[in-house]
Amino acid sequence: MAMADAAVLITGGAGGIGAATTRKLLEMGYRVAVTGRDAGKLARLADQAMAGDALVTVSGDAADYADVQRAVQAVLDRFGRLDVVIANAGFNTFDTLPDGDPEGWRDMVLTNVLGPALLVKAALPALRESQGKIVLIGSEAGIMHRPGNMYSVTKWALTAFAENTRLLVAADGVGVTMVAPGPVDTPFYAAREGGAPGGSILTADTIADAVVWALTQPAGVDVNTIVVRPTGRV
Q1: How far apart are CA 78 and CA 73, in angstroms?
Q2: To pair with 148 at 20 to 30 A between CA atoms, which of 40, 94, 141, 227?
Q3: Is the pLDDT reported for residue 2 higher than 70?
Q4: Per the residue annotation, which of 30, 65, 151, 189 is the catalytic one?
């Protein structure tokens, strides 16, 4: 996709993979809008990026349709178009069916599964007009089962949603890519006892590079699934 004038909307983009992707796209000349629940983190991202009018931040909840609509409209108002949406917002409760908190699962399902659906619904008219791209940040947990793990269930749902959406929009010239990382060294693991898992681990920049690679393929190429793991991961 040509970068000139292209506009991108990233949910949950104030830190981790979302922030790394934001920085790389801005460096390449894309115009980027970022959403997140924490207005302070969004402000810090904007200060650090020093991208001027090329970056828009919109505080809001990825699982709230009114907030998602507002973010899409902010992109259209500022940039006049929308070429890419990246459904990045998500989290893990780091528990299992026997010991977990159902209320935590509710929030996780809403963010990890409903959130991407709301983003696609709100953005689809603009993406059809631009023949743009949809990127979904999945997980290796969505292509391999983990016993009793509800996070894995949400990412399996996202894997299904990616193909479901591809079939919906293929005739419109809209591409759909799911990027499924293994463990990534980001604040994602802040809620996990012991922090990030041991052994080899990816960086947020590595996953951002995968997203950029998918977006910059030649016209007529639709990259559907990218699985990225650290070397030696089984």
Answers
A1: 8
A2: 227
A3: no
A4: 151
Whether residue 227 contacts residue 165, with contact meaning beta carbons closer than 8 Å, is answered with no
In the structure encoding, which two tokens stand for residue 184, read together?
């990534």
Q: How far is CA 74 from the centre of its chain?
A: 18
- The Cα 36–Cα 21 span in angstroms is 14
Give yes or no: 30 in active site. no
- Residues 152-199: tens digit of each pLDDT: 999 999 999 999 999 999 999 999 999 999 999 887 777 787 777 777
Rounded CA gap, 111 and 157, in Å?
A: 12
102 vs 81: CA distance, rounded Å: 39
Q: pLDDT band at residue 3, thresholds of 50, 70 and 90?
A: low
- In whole angstroms, give the CA distance from residue 81 to residue 120: 15
The domains located in the chain, with CATH, are 7-228 (3.40.50.720)
Cα(89)–Cα(48) distance, rounded to whole angstroms? 20
